[in-house]
Amino acid sequence: MRIPLRDTAAVAAGVLAPLGAALALVPLRTSVTHTALGLVLVVVVVAVSALGNRFAGALAALSAAAWFDFFHTEPYQSFHIHDRADIETAVLLLLVGLIVSQLAAYGRTMRRVAVVDATHLERLHGTSRLAGLSTSSDEVVRRVRDELIEVLELRACRFEYGTLIGRPARLDPDGTVKVAGWIWDLERQGWPDGEIELRAIVHGRYQGRFMMTPGPDSAPPPLEARLVAADLAAQAAAVLDDEAVSAGPRS
């Protein structure tokens, strides 16, 4: 699995940013208290955690404590500490750095979740509004198809009317993926090969299916995204069902 560039940069910053800050503070080590120097390094740890991830934040805390010991405690340029107060400062720097790094990463995660949830809600509301205003089921189907490509990060998606043909992998309304009737371990195995169907069913009546093609080596979407996709397909099914009912039985 390819590691995102942002995560790679965050890990590099976790190692190098505290080192750079510790080096920059060397001219001040005899005129500024060790507590003040430690607080500056804590700020660096928080910055790395806020911009990176939990692992990068923890790595930054360890790096800050190590370079504080190496550059700012006697004997200098050594990882040995003789003074008890310096030992306490280094330990506190490590503990505080670990705590604030995790808090910062947690806050960043919560902000990201809130943004994603708001985006999913807008997708559902936007499609629902279109379904209520549009006089064309094809327009709603196209909207749902485009939304599925976005929310599931697909390479392509098409809609098939009519009867079921074949037994492709299937995304069910509960967010699970089934292959030949068995639940597929999406998180561990990634998307199955080939197209994946998402059936448009409402009130037990089958209206068609979206045939989805994931991007090459694309990461599987989280459960929340898969549930949103199922709700979008259900909205398309409802519009198609209403159109079929309005048209009446065929002669």
Give a verbal description of the structure.
This protein has 251 residues and is an alpha+beta fold. It has two domains: 5-111, no CATH class; 134-247, GAF domain (Beta-Lactamase, 2-Layer Sandwich). Helices cover 61% and strands 13% of the residues. It has helices at 5-24, 34-51, 54-72, 84-133, 137-152, 186-189, 223-247, and strands at 154-160, 169-171, 177-179, 182-184, 196-202, 205-214. Strands 1-6-5-2-3-4 form a six-stranded mixed β-sheet. β5 (196-202) and β6 form a beta hairpin. α2 (34-51) runs parallel beside α4 (84-133), α4 packs parallel to α7 (223-247) and α5 runs antiparallel to α7 (223-247).
Main traits of this protein?
Beta-Lactamase; 2 domains; 6 strands
- Rg over CA atoms: 27 Å
Global shape: elongated
The poorly predicted ranges are: none
Order of helices and strands: HHHHHEEEEHEEH
The percentage helix is: 55-70%
Major sheet attributes = 6 strands, mixed
Helix/strand layout:
Blueprint: H1 5-24, H2 34-51, H3 54-72, H4 84-133, H5 137-152, E1 154-160, E2 169-171, E3 177-179, E4 182-184, H6 186-189, E5 196-202, E6 205-214, H7 223-247
Parallel strand pairs: 2-5
Antiparallel strand pairs: 1-6, 2-3, 3-4, 5-6
Helix pairs in contact: 1-2, 1-3, 2-3, 2-4, 3-4, 4-5, 4-7, 5-7
